[in-house]
Design goal:
about 110 residues; mainly beta; Barwin-like endoglucanases; 6-stranded mixed beta barrel; 1 helix; 6 strands; globular
């Protein structure tokens, strides 16, 4: 485990905008924003309230709200069941450290 804290999500207001790494944000992909992890880092996110989990790739910066550790795409948030609540206590687990090309089988949307 590399971090625990609160996850939030972002969706249609940002869909189609440019992410911090230059990609176009797709709310239906399995991506996320983190303040410091290298781009292309793959993280396994576990919702501590219900045990649901998802694997995401970091392609943006944020969240910029005190106490939040990761901002998930809408699809990633749906997979761990936080769309309605908007927030969840999570654990982050490192799968692959970024800033290098990912093998095709590790690309998360």
């Amino acid at each position: 485990m590399i971090e625990t804290g609160i996850a939030s999500w972002y969706g249609s207001d940002y869909h189609g905008t440019t992410t911090a790494n230059g990609e176009t944000y797709n709310m239906n992909s399995l991506t996320a924003a983190h303040k410091t992890l290298p781009f292309n880092t793959v993280i396994h996110v576990v919702n501590l309230d219900n045990g649901k989990n998802v694997t995401v790739r970091i392609n943006n910066r944020g969240p910029f709200v005190e106490g939040r550790v990761i901002d998930l795409s809408r699809e990633a948030a749906r997979k761990i069941d936080i769309i309605t609540a908007g927030l969840a206590d999570v654990e982050l687990h490192l799968v692959h450290e970024g800033d290098s090309p990912l093998p095709d089988e590790m690309i998360c949307g």
